[in-house]
Amino acid sequence: MNKLSSKSKHSSEIKIPINYITLEGILTIPEGAKGIVVFVHGSGSSRCSSRNQYVAQELQKGDLGTLLFDLLTVEEERIDMITSHLRFDIDLLANRLISVTKWILSNSDTKKLKIGYFGASTGAAAALIAAKEQPAVKAIVSRGGRPDLAEKVLPYVRAPTLFIVGGEDSQVLKVNQWALDKLKAEIKELNIVPGATHLFEEPGTLEQVANLSGDWFRKYLLETE
User: Fold this and answer.
1) CATH code given to domain 9-223
2) Which of 2, 143, 174, 203 is deepest in the core (most CB within 10 A)?
3) What gap in Å lies between CA 31 and CA 44, rounded to an integer?
4) Running DSSP on this structure, what letter comes out for residue 158?
């Protein structure tokens, strides 16, 4: 494990039991952390997403814990590789996230930490749906998200919400602009990263995502009482 700041941190592979299944995750808690960001990956991705891992490492430098976990089991992923069905079952994914959030609230290492969600692509829709059901969630960031897939809950989400979209991701930008209007959270914002496409693969663009996300989560998880 690389040292990312002057403070020590504990990182471990974990298994989260949910009803009849078990989900795998990577839990990292820096010394003195007061908040934790749960990563909700997009379609066809996993806890091993290089983009999410990069953002998570940057957040850890700012005294935020992180949890990256698989929304699907290994067997479900095998099925989804063929059918591509489960990755778009947003209600299923949201229910998994709600269960993981309950685990965080009951786990001795995490139960005192303020919770935020970082959702990418379809994972952003699952994050919005889960946040509506979980008042413990105090902040949401969506990276290249599909909030239109969470249309039914947009008027009910209360957590401060940040949409980050690439300036060259025209279709996703349109749905985020539409969703921002539908979203009734008192604190909401759309930030466009110039020159970025959907996956933020252009030089420096993912760094901007990490910086924007870090500022948002520190403000609403660490600074806001």
Assistant:
1) 3.40.50.1820
2) 143
3) 32
4) -
